[in-house]
Design goal:
Radius of gyration: 12 Å
Helix content: 55-70%
Order of helices and strands: HHHH
Number of strands: 0
Number of helices: 4
Largest sheet: none
Strand content: under 5%
Number of domains: 1
Length: 75
């Protein structure tokens, strides 16, 4: 997937390593991503990786964090 510049406004999206920067990618997409980007996260990261990113996040908005934690409970 080619990341949108508006989603990763503080870096060059072409330089993002999806494995090395997994927490950063997950946080941004779950907080500001569109439906296609969120689907991409669920396809490319396992549930445990997403859960750990949510738990360790200090930048994810509280509302987003609560929503995704509820969704993770259902999966």
């Amino acid at each position: 997937m080619e990341f949108r510049q508006s989603l990763f406004w503080d870096v060059d999206p072409k330089l993002i390593d999806i494995n090395k920067n997994a927490n950063y990618v997950i946080e941004r997409i779950l907080d500001f991503g569109n439906d296609e980007e969120v689907k991409w996260v669920w396809k490319n990261y396992d549930k445990l990786t997403i859960k750990r990113a949510l738990e360790s996040s200090r930048s994810l908005r509280k509302e987003s964090k609560n929503l995704w934690n509820l969704i993770l409970e259902k999966k």
